[in-house]
Amino acid sequence: MAALLEVEHLKKYFPTGRGTVHAVDDVSFTINEGETMGLVGESGCGKSTLGRTCIHLLESTEGKLLFQGEDVTHLNKKQLAEFRKKVQIIFQDPFSSLNPRMTIRDTVIEPLMLSRQFEGAQLEKEAENLMDLVGIERRFYNSYPHELDGGRRQRAGVARAISLKPKFVVCDEPVSALDVSIQAQILNLLMDLQDEFHLTYMFVTHDLSVVRHISSKICVMYLGQMVEVAPTKELFDKQYHPYTKALLSAIPSIDIHHQQKRIMLKGEITSPINPKPGCRFAPRCLYATDECRKPDQPLVEVGPDHFVSCCRVKEINNL
Amino acid sequence: MKSRASDKPGSLAYVGKYLLHSPSAMVGLCFLVGIMILSFLTPFIFKYGFRELNIRAQYSTPTLEHPFGCDEVGRDIMVRVLYGAKYTISIGIFATAGGGLMGVILGAIAGYRGGLVDSFIMRFLDVFQSFPAILLAIAIAAVLGPGYWKVILACGITGIPGYARMMRANILTVRGSEYIEAAKSIGCKESRVVVKHVIPNAFSPMIVSLAMGVANAGLAASSLSFLGFGVVPPTPEWGSMLSTARTYILEHPHMVIFPGLFIMLTVLSFNLVGDAIRDALDPKLRD
Amino acid sequence: MSEHATPKEAFLDIRDLKVEYKLGKDTIYAVNGVSFQVEKGTTLGLVGETGAGKTTIAKAILRILPDHSLKMMDGVVKFDGEDILNMPDEQLRRIRGRRISMIFQDPMTALNPVMPVVDQIAEGIALHQNKSKQDARIAAIKMLEMVGISSDRAGEYPHQFSGGMKQRVVIAIALACNPDLLIADEPTTALDVTIQAQVLELIGNLRDELGTSMILITHDLGVVAGTCDNVAVVYAGEIIEYGTKEDIFDHPTHPYTIGLFGALPDLSKDVKRLSPIAGLPPDPSVEYTGSCPFAPRCPKATEACTKEKPVDIEITPGHLVRCHLAKEK
User: Does the model's ipTM exceed the 0.85 cut?
Assistant: First the structure.
């Protein structure tokens, strides 16, 4: 498989009144064509910022972005317009991601119209094909978002995102605002579309059971940095980073007979404003020592395609 | 899901439909439209002109001949009140439209551009807002001198800072929404994002305050006329009628009561309509 | 505490609770004949999707539904033998907060932003336990420590706390008067998983320690699995399946319950496709008097399902299923 998106030492800082927020701090990864990469982390860890920076909805502070082998770190207006046709995003909140004053039809037509690939009746037909494809019934074509339920709204958001036949789609928590039964419908839809159009997904979520279901590879993020990267199966079999262990053990399981012992973390997520050097997780880590406060904690390969950023990984896991 | 017709939420058509179904708004609207029509028709339906003197009927209390009575030179007050309606109401509407337009443009620029432009516009408007509105209107009217259009200008300018502030806040809210990000990601040019996505959504909450603003501007216009800065006699603007009549308030109260009553009814009507518009646009009342 | 309790009656006994309210011109049939019991010291999970009526049930127990939109509230809510729905307001006020407490979903809006957290906890203690201000403050600090917030942060304001800590403050307020019944409405939905684990463990420990009964409202079956003794599955304002945790998780019988489990991506199994429940959640402005509300979405629906409303069938002792097909077992 060829690499579709390569991210090298990407940083995204936001200046604020109280200091600089290190939302994404030196992150590198590669997404191959046709695969789904799950990006997991808790609120405020910078996963949404990372997703948006990868598709130029936010400009990176430092680092390099390669898309299909080409350097797309800095783009002029014309290049950006071309790039936009290849990358898209699906948002979390189906209530705020649709313009409340545009009908579903207009929302889906807009990108087609802007692309200038279609005209007149052809435009209408293409839009209807798309709405049909994502499962919006004909009677809702001319409805406004507030007249629809969350599931249908999210379908409209999906239709808009795939309308230009992109290569790469960032799914930013696309199902976390939906009920379980609707969530399953949208997940199935996303997987069907991936097969049909050979899409590559970056699936940003805090829900590990969803990410396990949909992704082939998982990156675990904590306070702007990757702490563990591994193929999905591998990661759920064996976790090496103390944070990943705690995260996985905290998922409420529906298996009432095998309730696993949860690893309780102490304290709360620390502030991403002017973070101290060293491992970001150290203040909450059960195994933290002075060594963890040293700067530069690189990702180290501990197994096939399994990377961990922890200086005590060997001692903790008896490797 | 409500089976309400698919009108654009927050659009004028949507608001209009809502108004038709609200009894109180209809009462207000009927009063305003009715009085405006009568105002233009007074020369044709009443036998007295608005400045026709009739010394024998001086200070006449309400009679069948003169339902609202007559003033100090025997002019028919009903004719004058109705004829004057178009001044107060039109001043209110024009002043709000002008002030609202300027305010919306300034607020939109400040909110969307941000940074230095924002600071400059908002600090400039702060200067305006640091005076009490009516005092500012008086100052502007005093500089410009009396007259119909000058009152409109004075009342309009005082409204600008409030509308600009509100528009700026709306723009900031809308600009942070995900559908703006979505618009960018599907390749909308910035101009299209602003015109198609930001402005329409930021503007619809403004409709309410504009509707409410008409009543305020009309009231301010009457106040200016009352103080002698606005529309001058013999034009029967309600404020200036009150101003003349206040000398006779003890002996001939009807001279004060009728213009005052109509000012009150007009403000009330505008507020009824404004309330209904707010209800129509309030997202909490929608599903 | 339960000096009024008669031995035969459950601690909290709800029978045929119905709540309707107005929304514009429509009537919303939020709760349609719900009955359940909560025994002392046990936890009941109310599971269901958005709009199923879970929160309305909870609010009806405390009688805190907004008066202006409430159209009808009917049924029996007996708490420790006392009839809540027909109780004078003054008497009810003494029960609310002291004997029954509620934790709301959003910790951000449940706290007063201009009051130090310790005072917010002390307020309830002073009000319900007739303690002096000083004693109430000491008790409040003790409560804070119990939920894992050190006493030197007691004087801080809510905005200085993170989401998880705010929710712990809310829990401290709810438990400050040592209530007999705690109603937790999605207490961890706004929190991250690791924080959720901390908060759930905290609630569980405090409940065991203080012997509190609890109603846990959630949409997350995983949370129920780890916390509850009994489970009620709510759909369209009705309890369509009720039983012990083992009944529901090992032998889900109602097609909706089965559907909920099927729609869930399971961590322990590999499935390529999820099986979502077809269709959409029911319209709450429709009253399902002559049919099963789930029939339009049910994969097993027969003609009887659209013609007759099913009644509760006890398939094993204590395991109730409101479905025509349950008869066949």
Answer: no
